[in-house]
Amino acid sequence: MSGSSAPLYQQVSAAIRDQIVSGHRNVGSMLPTEHTLARSFKVSRATIRKAIRGLKDEGLVRATPGVGTVVVRKRPQKRFGYLRTINDDLDDRGIPSTIELLSATFREPNDAVREHLHVEPGGRVLEVVRIRRIASQPFSITYFHVPEWVGVDPEADFKRPVHEYVERARRHFITYGTDRVSARSPTPSEQEMLEIGEALPVLIVRRTSFTDYDQPVEFVESVIRSDLFDYVVTLPRKPDADPTEGGQS
Amino acid sequence: MSGSSAPLYQQVSAAIRDQIVSGHRNVGSMLPTEHTLARSFKVSRATIRKAIRGLKDEGLVRATPGVGTVVVRKRPQKRFGYLRTINDDLDDRGIPSTIELLSATFREPNDAVREHLHVEPGGRVLEVVRIRRIASQPFSITYFHVPEWVGVDPEADFKRPVHEYVERARRHFITYGTDRVSARSPTPSEQEMLEIGEALPVLIVRRTSFTDYDQPVEFVESVIRSDLFDYVVTLPRKPDADPTEGGQS
DNA sequence: AAGTGGTCTAGACCACAGA
DNA sequence: CTGTGGTCTAGACCACTTT
Question: Per DSSP, what are the bridge partners of residue B104?
């Protein structure tokens, strides 16, 4: 109950979700009515409704007017493709890694970077190069490119995911991005940095991140040992239908 | 106008959306405060909030606590990352390709396939092997695995995307899938089939497709020349609020 | 200090499903 | 008929940003 600083509706949401996941509420069973839940949780019905809305979004329950709310799934619907960092992936797999900052300098970008970031000729970008190690073994080299106008401090420590520095510098938030995954043989310098031979391909993951205003603010190129990493994403089947737009009558 | 029967919040939502789409509210401008909107629309603030929530979901506006709500986009945001076939990709890029069916046989799957498809020991899967060519040049080899219980006809021509045969056999529809992208050096037989040397890596794309009931019905492994293909996907930043939270007890 | 969006309450009426 | 979820109101307090 109280004690937690999270909003009430999230606490209620979590409580009901736990009942479902733990098996105290079976798939196919009805939830108590919203009035009943409001009484038993000692909150208003509006708060209960906001909590249940979250469960609906997770695909755990379905509400039918005039009938009630039924449990339709024991586990939350798999989260569909959203932007994740390599850090997120490794964290999920419980793999600890360390990051070493190699350089952080302003420079004129090459044509590929310039095009991805819509940088005018003559414009500069902050290039941050980091190397990631797992158990002191080289894992990946990552090149971050951020347009100068974004205003990221080149003296930052860059120990955290770079998009955090981008978002701290501007009021804009990154809302989506495009990933391009390819593979090739490593260059001699990559072979040296990653401590691999020419026979082991590297996986190249390029990400362009965009703000609300569809403005690219970050271009990240990761060169990853292909024996230590897969790129994994879960996607829905369709662009899914529009919500109730029915202005018509 | 017109005594519409639609809920109030949808009418308000539509009205504001029209102002944005028609250009009466410019991208970058602030919406009136929720209190002001409530007064001018003559509805409660709760109704205004529900209307704005819809606009947020469409990516048209962004609300910042303590600041206000700003118009960030003139048209609803395009839908993100959904399951696409290699065929879709090539079509979008205007690249014509041909498909040759190499084999379609029932067999006992290896452990990896068995695990992905949840096939019991002793169970069989239909394996369909196809090769794709672009301008008569080999492009990719694809191995489809479908559990026998799905009932796909092994005598089909398999000229179309295989998931269509899966959905035709059952009434279930594929609603989501997981892609795993990796890279390695080609095996000798792959070098021969793809007409490449050992120095050119191959991109491996593995897809497991699931029905609404979270049941895997298809496992596809594609071996692709890395010089002719990138795996591309556009993803949103977050599903929205993070339900992870502390979540103990 | 003033103003914003986020949360929350305690009521109310409605359309619809089911006995 | 009763009970359900869906909608709506008119207040309130909060954390936060900006002045």
Answer: B128
DSSP A28: T
- Give me A186's structure tokens: 């490593």
* φ and ψ at residue B160, rounded to 5 degrees: -100, 170
Answer yes or no: are the C-beta atoms of A165 and A142 closer than 8 Å: no
Longest dimension (CA), chain A: 68
pLDDT digits (tens, 9 = 90+) for A177-206: 999 999 999 999 999 999 999 999 999 999
pLDDT tier at A93, thresholds 50, 70, 90: confident
Contact criterion met (CB < 8 Å) for B185 and A175: no
Report helix, strand and coil shares of chain B as percent, to nearest 5: 25, 30, 40
- State the nucleotide closest to A49 in CA–C1' terms: D5
Give the residues of chain B that fall short of pLDDT 50: 1-3, 240-249
pLDDT interval class at A78 (50, 70, 90): low
Angstrom distance (rounded) from CA B49 to CA A125: 40
Q: Could you give the residue ranges of the DSSP H alpha helices within chain A?
A: 8-21, 34-41, 45-57, 86-92, 111-117, 162-169, 188-194
Point out the nucleotide closest to B67 (alpha carbon to C1′): C4
Q: Is the pTM of this model over 0.85?
A: no
